[in-house]
Specification:
The protein is 36% helix and 19% strand. By secondary structure, the chain is of the alpha/beta class. Helix 2 packs parallel to helix 5 and helix 3 runs parallel beside helix 4. The protein starts with a strand and ends with a helix.
Length: 148
């Protein structure tokens, strides 16, 4: 059997409060629910997942650097999507295929959420499907990596 693909799933600020925070926008599911959802797919598809959440930009950058041997990145940068050139540069620096994920559809919300500093250094973006966005991202990444 081929070696397992190592995928890191990174969540940015305030996503630790998922399930409590603005439920009308982000739904009732927690980060733990998301982890259970994607773990099943990973087990069936020979992938190894590592989860990380931080409210601090520098910690997210450090984590990306430390995991530069990973095969893929799934990242919900949360509010850093719209502000962080530093996280964008970290993803570009490690040169690992990355997928940007959002629970909400950022294009139907406030104008400032429509701009992502991160998307241009990702292979794609999935937005609007709640925790299911993460599963779609993992499926897309798996397909991308198995074709590579
Ligand atoms: C979010 C969208 C961002 O605009 C927001 O700042 C978040 C969550 C989402 O998953 O829908 O914190 O990334």
């Amino acid at each position: 059997m081929d070696a397992k693909l190592k995928i890191v799933i990174i969540n940015g600020p305030n996503l630790n409060l998922l399930g409590v925070r603005e439920q009308e926008i982000y739904g009732a599911n927690t980060l733990e629910d998301m982890e259970k959802l994607v773990t099943g797919f990973a087990e069936d598809n020979n992938m190894d997942l590592d989860f990380f959440q931080s409210n601090h930009e520098g910690e997210i950058i450090g984590y990306i650097h430390e995991h530069r041997s990973a095969n893929g990145i799934i990242i919900n940068p949360a509010a850093f999507t719209h502000t962080s050139i530093a996280i964008r540069d970290a993803i570009a620096a490690v040169n690992i295929p990355a997928v940007e994920v959002h629970l909400s559809n950022i294009y139907t919300r406030e104008e400032f959420r429509r701009m992502s500093f991160i998307a241009p250094v990702c292979i794609g973006q999935i937005s609007g499907f709640g925790i299911y966005s993460y599963l779609l991202a993992l499926q897309a990444l798996s397909n991308y990596l198995n074709k590579a």
